[in-house]
Amino acid sequence: MAETTFLDKIASIIVDGSTNTLSNLVVVLPNKRAKVFLIEALRNKTENTIFAPKIISIEDFIQDIAGIRSIDSIELVFEFYEVYLSITSKEKQQPFELFANWAKTLLQDFNEIDRYLLEPNHVLSYLKDIEDIKHWSVDAEKRTPMIDNYLQFWSLLPKYYEELYSHLLNKGIGYQGLIYRESVKNLNHFTNAIGRKEFLFAGFNALNASEEKIVQHLLATEKARIFWDADETFLNDPFHDAGLFLRRFKENWKHYKSHPFEWIVDDFKQHKNIQIIGTPKTIGQAKIAGKIVEEHAGKETTLNKTAVVLGEENLLVPLLYSLPSSVAAMNITMGYSGKNNPAQILIAKLFKLHSNALSRNPNSYVFYYKDVLDVLTHPLIEPYSKTSDLVNTINQNNYTFITYNKLFELNQSQSDLFLLLFRKWDKGSMPVLETISGLLLQIKSNLSNDDEGEKITKAFVYSIFKVINKLINYYSKHRHIDTIETLFAVYKQIIDLAEVSFEGEPLNGLQVMGVLESRVLDFETVIVTSMNEGKFPAGKSQNSFIPYDVKRELGLPTFKEKDAIYTYHFYHLLQRAKNIYLLYNTESEGLDGGEKSRFITQLEVEKQKNHNITHEIYNAALPDVAYRPIVIPKSESVMQRLKEIAEKGFSPSALTSYIRNPIQFYTQKILRISEVEEVEENIALNTLGTIIHETLRVLYEPYIGKFLSAEDIKNCIKKIDEEVLKQFKIVYKEGEIKKGRNLLAFEVAKRNVLNFLKLELQEIEKSDDNAVKIVALEHTYERLLEHPDLPYPVLIKGNVDRIEQRNGKIRIIDYKTGKVDGKEVTLKQWDKLTEEIKNDKIIQVLAYAFMYEPHLEGQEIEVGIISFKNLKSGFLPFQFKIDKTEISVVNEEISGNYIEQLVLLLNEILDKDIPFREKL
Predict the structure, then answer these.
(1) Three-state DSSP state, 102
(2) Are 323 and 528 in contact (CB under 8 A)?
(3) pLDDT category, 304, cuts 50, 70, 90?
(4) How far is residue 234's CA from residue 246's CA, in Å, rounded to a whole number?
């Protein structure tokens, strides 16, 4: 069988017996993932059953030498805080949140110092001296306490390091650097203790100083062999970053003075098809990757030798949606991000709910309605909490802020789930974590094992449950770190560790992975996404207290070395591949933008003779028409519903909604879809309008059938404040009106009513002849419209705001809280009256005249509008303008013309052959 991959060659070395017996052999690889592929390569190399050698990752190997357990970054910060408190005087101690901000950076520096076996006192004192030099010009007497504290911080770094190091060693735990340093110290003892064991190191690239020392020691004592995967193209080019570390090892290691450097291959120069594809945005890359996979799935029987390498992990979900159904098997090495886990989203909402309640007032414990509804309507809660009545009550009554007691009062039947959700978080972090743990167990018990979807949900819940238990473990040991804010900050950091793994067969089907998971592996077809600067390579990130020049001097890795690691990973992916697709985002601006990766430019500039490189830009196909209006034909059931409306009554507003947009009429009147009931946090304009209408109705109601006097209006003015407040309570219910925008709306309502009544008073006082008699207020009128052109009689029905008798004429008034001017109620020609939405107010007021006509008893009638935002114009009557003549009385001719236009509109609505067509 032809050896095509690096691991095949390693398998040959193992099986051919050129190493020690398999039981004594330990194979050390850069990561755990490669182990499965090496075992498969071994299986293909032998026909007999054999015991595989022990295969471990480099980190496990180092831990074995040191005999120290590794701890995660969160636990490390907790342990460091213990040390910090023990050596810092009480008055200078910082709370955990402030401490954690600088501690994480310092711990990273400690880690690097240890991994590279530097003398910590030398490095940390060096940093202190640099800061002293920066402040040398400040006279001792002019130094502020802030400068003194700052310089003292730098002088304390060696002490922090020593105390933390000994504290962790005493507990038998450590961070990566400490474990590396201890493993080097323990190296002689380990070498003597391993007996006949032999180590085989395979597929490494960048080694830190500790790893170099360990490997070189084992090579010198003939306890190990090491095999590199070095391509001569990069190794022999002194400027190529892909060979940076391998060149250093080849030149500097004593072992290579007397032994060959294994292996140097010549795979990169071989024939390759490299397609560079640019497309706008991230989703475009996912779609193209899916299309490429589909093409290969059609040509090949298996996708085992095809890999999609994601430069950005957030591309995983779009990619999964873009993959074709022809992908029968797939393995995903990356986990589903904990941040998008539905259980995590619920816990984050709970933190927001309770931390906001605590910050407002820990005693009354006031919840914000959005926080409450976010929790109650969450998919893991809503089906099981039995709180739909509570949600409706909050929405209908405009509860904006709800006290703890009020919430329990509104929801009399409290389930265990409800109690766990809203139990007060005022007893410290441990009770909170225990409550969340209990909540997750309750959610788990609600989910069934029989339903595939719910089984997946259980996996999500379990991953968060493990995180909460980990936090319980931390907090049980460190009880003095006890604020909800700190707990939430720690929770947000640890949630990244709560990935949910995808099920898959690692050796079968399409391989989807991140850049680091691709180490040591070889594929024939490689699709790499996010080939943009800042993504691939990742770009500079200076998260360290140690300046760049100091790092260079001390031999610590800088961004150049980190870029070189990325470069090796990238070129190793391409090394044995035959078909390569490099996808990048053409948008240089925006959050996920960036220039085309330097790796693409490097491939083009340093093009190999056998490389076939093509460059394409893909853009989404734009439709010829941006949007096609919705067209809904009238079915039998629609026609039946229209007849029903005609019998019950078409309101003027229903007619104008049809003119505005027939689809709006269809959804509201035919389908009867109403707006979702929601809390009206800020008073909406229509609510304000209702309050003003109702206030005027109540104030004028005692005077129906009477002539108004100036004294009557003055009495109404006295009652404004009381009545507006009363109407706010009726219409806006439990909504907050004593502060913010709603207080302004309340004052606006009072001002509008007052201004209207002042206008009324002026007109009454101005002339005795201008006697006003209230005929009706907020009264519903209806009239059957029978016409030979209509398929059947149609009832016109509507609510009139006010009808009065003024100077012997009947006047119908429609109140408008918005601004209206005289032009909007002036008509010059009847044609197209019902086709243009600008005529909606005319259609409305003339409909009132049509409905009231049978009650006229020979009196003249005029109709119009009073606009509260244009009160200085007073009553705005409907006017029909012929040349320079303005007719404001609705006479028989105007009424007849209006009916003809109304019939045209109704015929269009009732015509089976005219569909509802959306207006844009």
Answers:
(1) helix
(2) no
(3) confident
(4) 9
